[in-house]
## 1
Amino acid sequence: MTILAPQVSVATVPVPYRVAGCSTESADTATIALEPVGSPLPAFTPGQYAMVYAFGVGDIPLSVCGIDGDRLTHTVRSVGATSRALWALRPGTKVGVRGPFGTAWDLRSASGRDLLVVAGGIGLAPLRPLVHGVLAAPEHYGQLNVLIGARTPGDLLYAEEVRRWGALVTVDRPDAAWTGDVGVVTALLDRAAFDPPRTTAFVCGPEVMIRAAARELAHRGVDPGRIRVSLERTMHCATGHCGHCQLGPLLLCRDGPVVTWTQAQSVLSVREL
Amino acid sequence: MNGDGTREVKLGALARVEGEAALHLCVREGEVTEARLKIYEPPRFFEAFLRGRAHTEPPDLTSRVCGICPVAYQLSACRAVEDACQVVVDGQLAALRRLLYCGEWIESQTLHIHLLHAPDFFGVDNVIELARTQRAEVERGLRLKQAGNRIVELLGGRSIHPINVRVGGFHRVPTRDELRPLAERLRWERDAAADLVRWVAGFDFPEAGCDHELLALAEPGTYAIECGTPTAMTAPSAAGLPADTDRALPTRAFDIHDFSDHVVERQVPYSTALHSVLDGRRHLTGSLARYAISGRWLSPVALEAARDAGLGDPRQGTVCRNPFRSIIVRAVEVLYAIDEALRIIEAYEPPSPPAVEVPPRAATGHGATEAPRGLLYHRYTLDARGTVTDASLVPPTAQNQGAIEEDLRRTVRGRLRDGEPTDAELTALCERVIRNHDPCISCSAHFLDLRVR
Amino acid sequence: MADGGAPAVIDKAGLDALIAVLLGRGRTVIGPTVRDGAIVLAELSGGDELPYGWGVELEAGRYRLRGRADGAGFAHSAGPQSWKTFLHPPRERQWTAERGADGELAFSEERTPPPAFAFLGVRPCDLRAIEVLDRVLTGGPHADARYRGRRQRAFVVAVECTEPGATCFCVSMGTGPAVGPGYDLALTEVLDHEGHRFLVRAGTEEGEAVLAELPQRPADPATRTAARERVAEAADRMGRTMPPVDLRTLMRDTLEAERWNDATARCLTCGNCTMVCPTCFCTSTEDITDLTGDHAERWRRWESCFDLDFTHLAGGGSVRSSPRSRYRQWLTHKIGTWHDQFGSSGCVGCGRCIVWCPTGIDITEEAHALNAERAAAGQPR
Amino acid sequence: MTEGFLSSLPPTLRGWLLGFAHDTAFPGDIRLFEEGSAADRFWLVRTGLIALDVHIPGRGAIVVETIGDGELLGWSWLFEPYQWHLGALTRTAVQAYEFDAPQVRAAMDEDPAAGLALFRAIGDQVIGRRLRSARTRLLDLYGPDTSRAYESGPAR
Amino acid sequence: MSTDGGRRPKLAVWKFASCDGCQLTLLDCEDELLGIAEEVEISYFLEASSAAGPVPYDLSLVDGSITTRQDAERVQHIRSVSRRLVTIGACATAGGVQALRNYADVAEFRAVVYAKPEYIATLATSTPISAHVPVDLELRGCPIDRGQLVEVITAFLAGRKPDVPDHSVCFQCKQRGTPCVIVAHGTPCLGPVTHAGCGALCPAYGRGCYGCFGPSNSINFPAFIPLLRRDGMDTLDVVRAFRTFNTAAPEFDAVSREEARR
């Protein structure tokens, strides 16, 4: 039995971080940049998450949406007490961070292959550092396609950056100024240039969207073992000890959030598993 | 001031009393024409819905009449049901009941002293303000109050609506080991209570008296709490004495089974509480009455504290009829209850089983105990299966209403003789007069003797 | 595991001495004792607190103490608690945080030294349960430091099972009634015409050292034989069995079985089965603050997958909203997906969940029924 | 049954199709299929109501459409990978003709004329009609912003 | 909870038909009382103070049920001057023991208790606060638990969700280490259907839970009622067991009516 024995249990006890910046993404969503006050946490890898603690309120899992040295960025949508507190943070405020936790996208295993990134809503956040990774070394990969679905044009995250990526964007509900695609994100697959057998796909978004997209990709010939999806369940401890995030055989805080469609397909097909 | 020279003082909602009440006072040409303690606490119909319940249920159900003195309700109910079923609970079980009751006395009396009554003597609105100048005393009071709660919590499970009391005894009795830490704390608190008596004795008290009969339970050899015989002391005027006389007067006792022949409730239009009278005369229950009836049975430490506080020696026939000084008597009762609790704990042997069987019986039972604010009487009629067919509850505040209104009249009249007070002054004075008797409005709002028709 | 040298025999006075020695070594001794009409695990100060002469009568949803004429001290089955209560307590502080006037945060890990427990009377099934908890709480990428601290310091006196209850099925789960590895000392209680005595073996050096301090005699063949026979007889007297199939596969194959509806009709979702289970480890976190708001604490407390809010998603409802899905989660996890997550079954066959379920839902009966339903439906899907 | 899908078919085709049918009935609250599972059967509803739903963790089953008397339940069996896109739950007791999908597909291959006619009928009467109505509903759902109820955020 | 300009949040405590016990719980927080008073401004609390602060209030605690027309109007006013409204106790949350009137003719009840019933203006039912105005949180119990009250106030101050679990008493009973009284003694106990919060007191004292915290969030009466019968309760006992302090809670009300029809 191998047991990690860090001096400070950074998996259990938060480490102080300072809010270095925050920007509004949409009405209910903000991106916060965090810098360590003292020693930083071990390095994060795209796809992994941190438990971010708002003082006195609680902590929630937030995927990293940007990694720059010791600086972590997270995009948070205000849906509960803790996310509301984090969403409302101002620069200079201190928070606690635990991590890194969970499985990563594992971009390296897609070396030399076509890449298909499919994101729905706030699901773009954990995929962003993956795209950064590809753009930093395009020579290692084949075709990169980024397909993004957003509820409305105003809900699109990182709009400037997304334009630079050349991503295909579709919205459910256009406004008067929107001249782009309208519809669900899977409809964009027809316009993406990828060779299914040579493709590794990375999918994140609402679970219904993940199910539809992964199923469609598999139908088009992408190997289910090469479709990587990021799943979400309630996480409390992030260390595999509290049991809340179980999804069938998976302990998602440890075995996820990123799993292959091979793993996810059967567990997502059982209601209330 | 109205055009006809009538002056009305209306106080919408009385503060620092338990429950909802208002005051209505009319003054005309220096005379008080009307003094009403108007209780508008919504009625809750306990006596009606007790009908049809099992004979084991009154302790838990009637506890909910009052969150301030639930133990009083539970134990009066137990006594009445046990009386109907001809069961006597005695020995260590009775001692534990008294211990539980001591806890409620300590809690409730310190609550009243510090949080409700003392602010009046310092001219502040509440205990938080009081704590700004009397921090140590308030903290001591809260600690004492907590000690009372700890007794109730240990024996009863929780301080409000304890869960461990049952007809026949308890669901579970504590071990000696469980009581030991409590005793350690109470030994400290006994000194604190002696300090408390000294503190309140130093307050500034107006001269006052009360011309009411005093009604309390009496139990030879002890300061009656959880049992005793109703005993009344004559009002001073009947003996040709002034209302503020401190002399003990003749007493008479009557059997608890005859309670409703002596204490009769009647309804007044302005109140959801029923007023009651003792043998047709106004009477007062509570600390002043208990001290008058049972004072000589206080423990030595309590007697000494009472004497040092200027209450005189009850063994020498001295009583206290100044309602403003009731705060001192309450403090003495706190000290006594702590002392008594310690005595019970030291003599404690766990009884087995924790309750005696109380098989139902078709009969009517009566029970009375001394709630912190006065005598609380319960009566139940059971059928052979133990179903309650009739219930009557007579709480102390209902009994005291007449006395409170008379105190209002007397005090306001006296004040008017000293010159014209402002409305604010008059209001504050009336509130103090009411709070002297620690009225518990929740208790008083739902009762009637069924025979009054 | 040390081979522990030669087995010895001690009597009741030896057991008293054992408790005294363990107390003398600064340990908090936890063992069985009678309280509230049950044999509970509590702190012991002497051997006279052991439940000599007490046995239990067990059925699904029913537990009754009954006297035993033979005066045995360990002839009772699993009680309402397990050692989890002490190793993985119901409520525990994990860290505290202070916010300074300048807004700086300081976090301090809970560092109160863990108690040095001595567990007296650990039944073989429970010893395996402790091993399961070890894997869950210290075997993954992140070890639970508090648990590990208590666990590493704990001294385990196992007692072999000679009196299984009607709800026991450790033989099915391969966890008893003979003791497996992991003990410091192992006892086997023997009562016959030669008297009331215990065969003792040491499993560790500390166990040997403790044993050496006790009044004892070398184990005689008769005592050894009697001990072996009593344990062997116990194996034949198991009240219940699990179906002799791969339970992990059975659970995977029957996720949509009708039988779940049947069990759920009887399930109160009270969570009692999870709380009494010696391996159920789930917890929830509590964040508390004081009135100033500048002092915060993180606590965790036992939680259960039967709680509707266990799977509450932020901004939504519960994933497992139906009682059916919650009961299914418990059972399929316990004997199915536990293997995937932690490399073993989560069930040790102690029968507590059967006894302490108010409506008497029986894990073995449910497994048999699921197996029968699968068989009736033909091949596994 | 006089209305619905069957009545839109020419009589010969109707007879041909019903040749593969067998009668079936379900009580209310029975799950006929799950999203993602194999689409190996389909039904023509004679009486009763079926809800098509999507399961969203934490929110339960969200009903997107209902299928009633005379309507065809299921068309995913026509196209690879023959997997249901939605789940189906009976809301009331249901009586229906049930068809074995592989058998019907094989028959469509064997008799291309009948196959094409059936395919056209499904494309027009079922898929096309539902697509049109879904788009109309989108207009309702995504029409002028309906003000969101104030989220007072009660703790529980 | 952010308040304007960093001032102390204002707390108000209101009373309707009740025994006062739940608001007394605030005064029973001896260790915390002065601390609370430092962190929040107790603006309205008649039982404790004769001073009343100006509206609006950041947090209103409401004790008691609605039994008169005036009270039904008063609670509307309270809602309108309160940013957050938390009901405290079984009366405010489920109508309290006085909701037993809901099963009877109130005119008759009134006549039993009062000689001149015409003096008494009261409604035919006792209803919870939530039947009249939106409520942000309902704190259960007859009476409420002191620890839960402090938790609600501190959580309010920290902007945190109060940790007030909705599961059954059994959860707390097991955490407390009490052997189940149903299983070990055959004692009827409402724990499996009752909301946690009391700390599982009654079983710890050897008695069955009597449901003073009302229904939990996951109840299976068809499986539970037979246990009560098995352990010696007859139909009348079962009806009485659910008709106490939370009698008007919908789940308890329904099961007691169903049992009463037997």
Note: The two ends of chain E are 50 Å apart (CA to CA).
## 2
Amino acid sequence: MSDVSVKKGLAKGLIKLTVLLGIGFIFLLLLGKILPAPTEDGYRLFPVIGSRVWVWIIAQLHLNFAAFVLGVPIFAVSMEYLSWRRKDDRLDRIAYDFTKLFTLAYTITASIGTVLLISLPLLYPKFIDHMMRILGPTWWLYIAFMYVEVIVCYYYYYSWHKMKDKKGAHVAIGGLLNIMGTIMLLITSAWVGYMTTPGGVSETGELVNRWQAVKTFMWIPLSLHRLVANVVFGAGIAAAYAAYRFIASETDEDRAYYDWMGYTSAMISIGFSLLLPGVGYLLGVEIYSFNEQMGIQLMGGFFAWLWVMQAILIGAILMFVNYYLWISLNKMPGGERYFKYVKFLFIIMLLGYAVWLTPHSVALSLDEARKMGTYHPVLGNLGVMAAKNTAVVITYLATFLSFAIFKMSNKESVVSWVKLGNALRGLIVVGSSVIMLAIGVYSYMVTSSVRVKVLSPIQFGIFFLAIIALFILDAKMFKGAKIIGEPRWGKMPERSQYALIGITVTFTWLMGMMGYMRSGGRQYWHVYGIMKDTSVDAFLPTHGYAAVITSIVTVIFYALMGFLFYGIMKLEKKGGQGGAKA
Amino acid sequence: MAIWELRWFDFQAATVYVKYIKVLLKEETVKKVFLGALVIMLLLPAMVFAEVKAYEVVDVKDGGSIKGKIKSSGPVKDPVLEIKKDENVCGKSAPANMYIISGANEVKNVIVAVEDVAKGKAIPKTDTVIDNQKCEFVPIVAVAYVGDKYIIKNSDPIFHNTSLGILLGEGKKRTVYNLALPNKDQVIEKPVKVAGLQIVQCDAHAWMRAFVYASKSPYAAVTNDKGDFEIKDLLPGKYKVKIWHEGFGETIKDVEVKAGQATALDHTFTKK
Amino acid sequence: MKGGAIKLFLVVVGINIFFAYIGLYFLPQSQSLPPKTIKIEKGIPQDELIAVGESIIFGKGQCMVCHPMKPETGMRAPAIATIGAEMVKSAKERNMPVEAYVFEALVNPSSYIQKGFENMMPPVHKPPTSLTEGELIAVSAFLQSKGSNITINYPDSVPVLQEEITKEAKKGGSG
Amino acid sequence: MRILIAVLLAMCFPVLGYGAENAAGNPEGKKIYDGWCAQCHGYKGDADSFTKDVSLPKPRDFTFGSFKFRSTPSGDPPTSEDLTKVIRNGNPGTSMPPWSRFSDAEVKAIVEHVKSFAPDTFAMEAKPIKIGTPPKASKELIEKGKAEFKAAKCVDCHGNAGRGNGEKGWQDDFKTDWGYGIAPADYTHGWELRNGSSLEDIYRTISVGLSGTPMTSYMDSLSDDKRWALAHFIKSLQLTRQLGLALKVKKTDNLPSKPNDPAWEKVDYMDLPIGGQLMFDTRDFTPVITNVRVRGLYTTKELAILLQWTDKKPNDGSDGKPTDSIRIQFPVKKHEATELPYFFMGTNKAPVNLWQWKASDMDKVFASVAKGHENVEPMEKSDATAMASYDDGLYSVVFKKELKSAKDDPVFEIGKFIPFSITAYDGRNGEENIRGAISAWYYLMMEPPTPLKVYVFPPVISLGVLIVGIGLHKKLRKNKRG
Amino acid sequence: MLKIYPIIAVIGLFLSIVAVLRKSPFFNFAGLLIFIYGLLKSAEYIMPALPAQVILMYMAMCVFSLFIYFSIQEETFKAFLEPMRAVLADDNKKFLRLIIVFAALPLFAGYLTYVKVKPTYNPPVSARIVHPEPPSQMDFKGKTMNVLGLENPLRKDTANFAKYVEEGKKIYYQNCFFCHGDDLDGKGHMADAFNPVPLPFRGTDTIAQLPESFVFWRVSKGWRGLPAGSGPWNSAMPSFEDFLTEEEVWKVIMFIYESTGNKPRSW
């Protein structure tokens, strides 16, 4: 592998892409001829499982891989940049490992994309006609960028070792790669944005202004949301990869490295995930301002229960994260001093989790409904947004404290104002919690618009202020602190790695479910308000059905990922390059 | 019960208690209650006496008597009962035996009773038999004496129940006894406790009826086939005499009884 | 450590089965069906018209997304239960016929906003709701039945409705 | 002596006033009585009251001095406890409710007041009979009770099955002390036995009778053990009432051939409590039928619904009174969501389909479509059929209908909850048309046959867990050794 | 009623405390779960019972979280697993193993599966709105009335108050008590037959929260006047305008307020 020259690599990449696209177009032409003509409404039916399920699975898989190949480069390039500035080889190795990962993943992504490319026009000819008419040029733009991206990507990968001495330039190429990726993300978001919150067309679906059709309500918020989610997802996948390698490792050294890698990736993933509610909020605001009806439908109508599901999932993720951090105390010299705090954090997490998964209106048995009506008089109060927001900020704060504990567990502050510092820390934690709780209680008494538009942002603002304050305080307190001992990387029980896997799988599943929700917001429209879905699949399936499909997609995705990981390991064994520096 | 349903403090009850306490604390009330208790204690023996006052047995010497004949203004046709139940025992139809009137228009089964007698001779120890025979009460009219017994019999192989009740008019009554006689030769004895004219019925055979005059004194009689009756050993004085027949109804006559003499009391009923 | 990989995969599958299970058994299972087109014939009896209107309010029109049935605190939009009477009142205030007011409220809702509410209602004859003329009239009749006399019927009220629709279209053109 | 008393009386004149008030009037009792009893029993205790014409059984007239519910021998007045018990527990099956709101003192005051209406009766001594320990129920005992039920001629009035349909209980002048007609009790309806349905209650009723009614006292004619045996037998006749919202109808290969086929007894049932039709003129305040038991079965082709109810005196309309009848009602259209037609006869907007059976035409169904109670049109064609039987006071009517439905027919879909309601008419009670006893909406659901997975999955999972257990066991053992 | 769940909770707590003292995390875990279950179930004594589904959700969360908690430290985790390992592998636990691992657990799993796959059918729930929204106008025997602000004309005639109440009593017991009860507690002798059950007038939940005008509307219009959401198709409440005059309706309203000690809402 190391022998492959940059040129050859580039050629390989370009040929692959061209061949795939070619196959796609040829299949499209051929099948278009062979297959029976679409129905009057403009549909063809995919055999057995139906068009919707087929496109759903393929699109979701494609999306997952795309998220991976867009998210991981951001992560990899930042690592490389850090390694370059800090002269830390470990980081460079991580970066290289990831580059390997996403370069390989490109092929899979493109292959699945090809299947999608064949499927969509064949199964939904009328709809795709419409899309092409409105947003056709962006599609050619998309192909063009795809080529550029492949070139940049392969160049970036194959020139890694050649450009060892020109790190700056190499990092710049990485930057370019990410810019390309973001542009592609913007283009695809524009498509989805147009479908959900169309603009720039007349009521009958005639193009009025193409730029308006691209620049829809959803475009930027959705892109932002996806960008952040991609980073979280990419880092999560990296953590999962590290976990996988950790478990598969045979030497202590490898284990130490992959432990560290898993930790770093997971923390980045979680760190960025703190931004998600914010960008999600933006997205929600835009949807509401496009069409109140759709917003309410998504938040409180048909999909209300999916937010409970989301709560269960995010609660599980936070639990996994905390668990990972607590278990990590084992490997910190001096970590055992902090086990006594874990109990309290655990109880807070548990209570927060309980609040978060309490549904507002409960699906009841008949007897229960007769006894208490639709809402439980007590539980009903825990089910509303006021309680949920409060619970989430407090559990986030607890998670941050777990992280802080982990960070300082092997240090002892030497500054003179230790006592004052500790008091200050306590004050920040307790004070902010009390304020957040008070705002939560106050939220019950105001109208929903005040709650959504004023109090919730204040709660989140206080949360961020609190963690920033804690962060600065800790940095000051532990400046030049006495270090009890270096972390014993690799001294982690295997089960901690399952927690990492759990985080990533849950996150992937969550992405799938949110996709169902976003797409469901359109209800029985291909393009909301412009083009009706008149196919047999025009209805929204039940949540259970969606959950099963999401699970299937996730399992397929991880099976493919497994092959990818396995392939990399095989490559390493063959070439030895980039593997553990034994 | 859910906690919030529990009334920790029952206001309604509390107001009543407070009222009681207020009343109790008033000086006058305390006095009143105390004196009241005293009076009741003193009056108690008197009350007991008042109860017993009902009928006083005395030795009657040289008493008078009432004697007479009850007649009808003319012959009355006795109705025939149609029987739809237990026909094998009761037969298809039976005479009601309501108007048993002789050729001379003398009426049988008329109750003649001297009312509200305060004193007199001892009550005879004669128990009153009520027999269910072929779906008919035998006798149809009888006199019973308070303190004695009813002997209620079933001579039929079928179920009868015997229900006695004070007649209140318009088909209404007040039950005195309602006793089951499910089998043949069943006998039930019951004390005669409630005084007055009573109807005897069998709910199972609604046409069956009899009448019993439960008397507190020994001074009551039923006319015989010739419409004759006699009431003996009355203390001299003025009395009210009740003459009652199932079909003809009731009249009350004032009679003065003189010592050692027989006062005649005849009456003729007219069918309305 | 091949066992490790298998174990990991089992964990992944297990987690997914668990989530699918939650989705299947914890969440209420209902489908959201696309609305059916409702045929309204000429000279339809009033109570049937109202019934159709009601079904649109709860179904195709998706009015219940914003409008509560009963007045409640913090409601987004006026309550349905008293809307008929309210509309009569407002029409009187604005000195226009009640029918015209009702139709305007449906097809040109931003032209007059009830006190205390925000301008957020979309014109319902346009996509995505896209109610037909007959459906609009049915809805109007139903709204009138909530506390006022019903004066709207099909097809006599069509001209009034069309006038309001053209007004709205003109406004859209100029603004 | 008398003089002394007179002097004393004079002395305590103010006191006496107080005392007299307390003893005779019981003002507290009168106040509550006037507030909460007089509406039915009359301000004077004579039952000449607001509800005298709208309740069945009629309210008790206290002035007669006859009291049904006693623990004392026949002829004796009830004890205060007996009266208290009636006030506290009410009389099931009548409009006398249990009064739990009053304090013990208040109930005592009411009892005092009630007693004052019949001073003669209550002047007598009242001593409750002794109720010993009941023998334990056993098959033999119940058999013995059954024999005794015949021997003591209980059957004469209460009928062979204890439904109150005995021949002697239905003479025209079967009357109470108050001059009203009365019907023998239906033992199968334990929930509406006026004097209580427990074994002791039954024993007590047999022993002392119900004064004022033809129910006679057996204390002197039957020995104690026989009465207990009887009580056990009667107790065993009581139906277990199953109230619910939905009847599950199971699939079968062959429907029972007759309405009184014993095969029906094994089928799931549901009891519908029914009440008078009170919404439309003429209202029925005094329905007699209070319970209809519903059973159902279906085959691939047909649905059969069995309705059973007690009618103590069948009436086919030949005596000038209306005929006995029952009617089942379904929505005409498939009902959507929770919206239904009006539960009695539908409305113009939402019509209902009615199948009526009449005792005058035993095997016929009168099918009609109703759009409100004033707008009923007979259906020209309906393939619903009926079969009926009358056994020992029990009507059994089976309605059958093919599952496929034509216009105006109800829609029978397997696995769906199909609403239905019942109207029952007792002709003897003068019930017909809209006067009758009605039920709310209930559902019947034809249960789809149990899917195969119910039999397959559990054993598979069990086996799986077992295998995992064994595997873990093996593995841990190996680890231990290794 | 025997309050079993608090006892279960106490037993669980006791078990977990003993387990803590004897350093047996597994039994601590089990005890805590029992404690939490008992606690959640005990809620039904002070509030409407928690729905089964919510309890299931909480319990699943607790199992998951507590398991995580006990696996943080290596020694604790080992001790936690020890009883399970012992049952599975130890020679002296053969009998226990036979019962738990080879019999009880598979059977229990089979049972749970059975419960889950067995098809269950629930009849549709008809929600009831106790106080439906009144219309602004109503029609009483052809007379149009404004429901809001409608006042009881008889209340002004304070001199005859007792008379009206008494007349109302007669009307009540000839028209209403079959369902709403002798004691106005909604438990009349025909109440069982109807669904939804008749409303009680006692207590502070029903008429005490309503102005008389509302009650007038409900009494006069009955089922016919109910809005669709309140299920007029199920209500047996007659339209009393068919049977009573306007004045009689007011009288009966006065009676039900007076006799239950409630006051009509006047704001």
Note: Residues 576-582 of chain A have pLDDT under 50 and may be disordered.
